[in-house]
Amino acid sequence: MWYTARPVKAMDSTTPTYSGTADYIAAPDLMQTVDVAVALGRPLLIKGEPGTGKTMLAQSIAHALAKPLIVWNIKSTTKAQDGLYVYDTVQRLYDGQFGDHDVCDIAAYIKLGKLGEAFSHPERVVLLIDEIDKADLEFPNDLLWELDQMEFFIPETRQTVRAGQRPIVVITSNAEKELPDAFLRRCVFHFIEFPDPATMRRIVRVHHPDLEDGLLDSALESFYRLREVQGLQKKPSTSELIDWVQALAIAGVEPARISARMPFLGVLLKKDKDVEAARRDMAGGRTGRGT
Ligand SMILES: Nc1ncnc2c1ncn2[C@@H]1O[C@H](COP(=O)(O)OP(=O)(O)OP(=O)(O)O)[C@@H](O)[C@H]1O
Ligand SMILES: [Mg+2]
Predict the structure, then answer these.
(1) Ligand 1: does its nearest atom lie under 6 Å from the Cβ of 165?
(2) What is the pLDDT of residues 119-131, one digit of tens each?
(3) What is the pLDDT of residues 55-64, one digit of tens each?
(4) Which of 30, 127, 133, 232 could form a disulfide with 173 if both were Cys (CB 3.0 to 4.6 A apart)?
(5) Segments making up each domain of the chain, as ranges
(6) Domain 28-192 maps to which CATH number in 3.40.50.300, 3.40.350.10, 3.40.50.150, 3.10.520.10?
(7) 55 lines ligand 1 (CB under 6 A)
(8) What residue owns the CA closest to ligand 1's atom 9?
């Protein structure tokens, strides 16, 4: 069973609640899901288009709940064991031959990974496992026990590393690979919907509080129109919009001229075919808008 050892804590007044932060705009349903995951003590699995704030959510949760943040960036070569601990046998061998260290102390050669750090931290931490879908398919399954029990055993030292306080685990995925069902069953899931224009306006304002209203209006209108151009392989996202409005502001582009000229298109679109499609659209071709 998932929670035989630690009963699920009901949400009550002692459960810290998350309501975004000054630098991160969270939709109400996202805030609620964060609260549920924290209260249940289950990993929060976040999916959404690239650039929609998945990674930053973990930073925001840590900030809002005043918890330390530990980040485990997953790569294609990352193994579950890397997150637990590494036994540095090479260093021990080296010290045995050339050093004056006491090589009998095996614990000195055990280096905790990010999961180990999170479990052994004196405070309750937020642990971000970023881009879990980059690793191989076995990776999530290999962590089931550890994320369930929040402990692991180090045979070399016969020690158990056990979380004093269950970390708040945030896992992000760009859905490059499907995650195993056994893993999904243990998570609370949330898909970050692409922000509507009103929310996007607030997000951009967080990053550029002094931006002129006219420029922002015009940039937003062109941005959402661009996202609807038919056949785009990679639609521009929040992070690209944030960069684009900054470029527009620095260059002092007239708001009225943005939609016709779409300056600095390369900040928004990163594929030549997409740039071509956008240029065709601007030249009076079909926009392919849904309605
Ligand atoms: N809701 C938001 N509030 C404030 N800033 C946001 C929000 N969403 C995205 N951003 C900004 O967009 C940028 C990208 O965010 P982030 O890196 O968290 O996206 P991501 O979903 O993790 O992207 P990827 O899938 O490429 O890793 C950051 O600069 C962040 O500040
Ligand atoms: Mg990210």
Answers:
(1) no
(2) 999 999 999 999 9
(3) 999 999 999 9
(4) 133
(5) 28-192, 197-282
(6) 3.40.50.300
(7) yes
(8) 53
